[in-house]
Design a protein that fits this description.
Chain A is mainly α. Chain A contains 9 helices and no strands. By secondary structure, chain B is α/β, with parallel strands linked by helices. Helices cover 38% and strands 26% of the residues of chain B. Chain B has a 6-stranded mixed sheet, sandwiched between helices. Chain B starts with a strand and ends with a helix. The chains are: A mainly alpha, B alpha/beta. Bound molecules: adenosine-5'-diphosphate (ADP) and magnesium ion. Adenosine-5'-diphosphate (ADP) binds next to strand 2 and helix 1 of chain B.
């Protein structure tokens, strides 16, 4: 064996880090890419599913519309239960090999990975979004109805903005889960961070050192993401105080005086 | 039918399952009416208002808006609702919007006016309720009385034919009741058609043109305020008023 090799744990870490830096960077980039894009796609799927699931069925609707809505909602339930109730690694196998064997669609492992993460996240997001929507108090929806606003208008302008704000922490959780769980995509040979670690560890058989590095990289990614999300929340919350509109400052005192004399 | 009748309700019945909450209500509103609906809790006052703007669909009976059955005619439901404003006990302001946006959203999305026009209308009515200085505030930054005044401005910005009020001061701290009632008095004086469910008997006596007493899903008695408060005919009305005056 090469006598220049390190002998201690703290010797191996910089050695391996230096030797495999490009591989780790590439792995981390792929992990980050699949997690972020997968979470965004999942969010879009979840929004659509959540919106469809909360469309009210009204007595006066025509039977065709009612039936269509009913069937769509049932299919969505099946989708959600299936993807929440099975491991993502199994889903990855089924999508990757299933598409290949049954439909002769030869997806690259990257594309298959992205697809699996997206639909898996979509199933979780669908429930998150639905919960976010029904947590907005009925009173605001009724007020919008009383103004004559349509259901979709009310959703777009009033319910979804508030629901979205409320579910940001859960979207963050999903993103963090995805950063960690993309590691299962190594099973279909997606060259993400975990697989990079696996390859790196076999050359010198330094498993502990390599996975220690990998662990730090995962932690750096997840911590960064939660910081960024916290910042986004603060931005969306806006200023905590308001300014009185200046042109009316004098009027307001007059108004109030008038108002309180009954 | 007189041309200035806005609303006519015939044989309105509303049941929730087996529970018949409204039993054969007949009722009509002319332009300029200020009708106060009084009655004990659970007598169906809110349900009646909610049926009037179709937040609940009636089990049977008809609601005629200027002679057109709102369940049958081509008049779109949302167009009808835009003409009948509603002010809720719990304000129900849109929490994600500023005071100004709350008053503009109906004007732009339902009345289909541009933002410049919507802003002018919203400002006009926010001034009227004394809330023009607060246009940049969000609902959670306001007191109950201020919220309710914004809710009234939001209804007014639709320039409706009439406004329904469901216990607009019941959720307010006592010291804020006055500011909301003052706004409502002003509207009544200016000729706004209003149906007001309220427990504020002084308001009913001084401001309304007609008082309706509801009891157990029926209109037990109605008439001018002088008559209802001074010489009620129905025993249930007497009982109800006696309880209010003693308390
Ligand atoms: N959505 C509903 N489902 C079932 N019962 C209801 C509903 N809304 C109102 N009720 C019932 O109808 C009755 C009248 O209610 P309401 O109109 O709110 O009375 P009020 O406003 O006069 O206090 C009550 O007994 C109430 O429990
Ligand atoms: Mg009520």
């Amino acid at each position: 064996m090469n006598s220049n090799l390190p002998t201690t744990f703290w010797g191996w870490i910089p050695f391996l880090f230096h030797e495999y830096l490009p591989m780790f960077v590439k792995g981390a980039a792929i992990t980050f890419y699949i997690s972020v894009i997968g979470t965004l796609m999942g969010l879009i799927i979840g929004l659509l599913a959540g919106i469809i699931q909360t469309i009210p069925v009204e007595i006066k609707d025509n039977p065709f519309k009612k039936a269509l809505l009913c069937i769509t909602k049932s299919l969505l339930k099946v989708y959600i239960e299936f993807f929440r109730g099975t491991p993502m690694m199994v889903q990855a196998m089924i999508v990757y090999y299933g598409l290949m064997q049954v439909f002769q669609i030869d997806l690259s492992s990257m594309a298959a990975g992205l697809l699996v993460v997206s639909i898996n996240t979509g199933a979780y997001m669908a429930e998150t979004v639905r919960g976010g929507i029904i947590s907005i108090d009925e009173g605001q929806t009724e007020a919008a109805k009383a103004l004559g606003m349509t259901h979709f208008r009310t959703m777009y302008s009033i319910v979804l903005p508030q629901a979205f704000r409320n579910i940001i922490p859960q979207i963050g959780n999903n993103l963090i889960t995805n950063i960690k769980d993309t590691s299962v995509l190594s099973a279909i040979a997606v060259p993400e961070l975990f697989l990079a670690g696996k390859s790196a560890s076999t050359t010198y058989f330094r498993y502990f050192e390599v996975y220690f590095i990998i662990c730090i990289v995962y932690l750096t990614m997840t911590l960064t993401v939660s910081r960024l999300l916290r910042m986004l929340e603060n931005i969306l919350d806006g200023p905590s105080s308001y300014e009185l509109a200046e042109e009316f400052q004098e009027e307001i005192t007059a108004d109030l005086k008038e108002t309180f004399i009954i | 039918m007189e041309t200035n009748t806005i609303l006519e309700i015939n044989h309105l019945v509303k049941s929730f399952g087996d529970n018949e909450v409204l039993k054969d209500i007949d009722f009509s509103t002319k332009k300029g009416d200020v009708i106060c609906i009084i009655g004990s809790s659970g007598s169906g006052k809110s349900t009646l208002l909610r049926c009037i703007n179709m937040l609940e669909s009636p089990t049977s009976g008809e609601i005629l808006h200027k002679g057109n059955n709102i369940n049958e005619t081509a008049l779109k439901l949302n167009e009808y609702r835009s003409k009948v404003g509603m002010v809720f006990q719990s304000f129900n302001l849109f929490n994600n919007m500023t005071v100004l946006e709350n008053c503009m959203i109906g004007v732009t999305t339902v009345r289909k006016k541009d933002r410049v026009y919507a802003r002018i209308v919203a400002m006009r009515y926010l001034k009227k309720v004394g809330m023009a200085a607060y246009i940049n505030a969000k609902p959670h930054q306001l007191s109950g009385g201020q919220k309710q005044r914004v809710a009234i401005a939001r209804a007014l910005a639709m320039e409706p034919e009439m406004i329904l009020f469901d216990e607009p001061t019941s959720a307010l701290d006592p010291e804020m009741v006055g500011e909301v009632l003052t706004v409502m008095k002003t509207l009544a004086k200016e000729g706004m058609t209003m149906i007001v469910v309220t427990h504020e008997m002084a308001f009913a006596r001084d401001v309304s043109t007609r008082v309706v007493f509801m009891d157990n899903g029926l209109i037990a008695e109605e008439g001018p305020p002088e008559q209802i408060f001074a010489t009620p005919q129905n025993d249930r009305t007497k009982e109800f008023l006696a309880r209010f005056i003693s308390s």
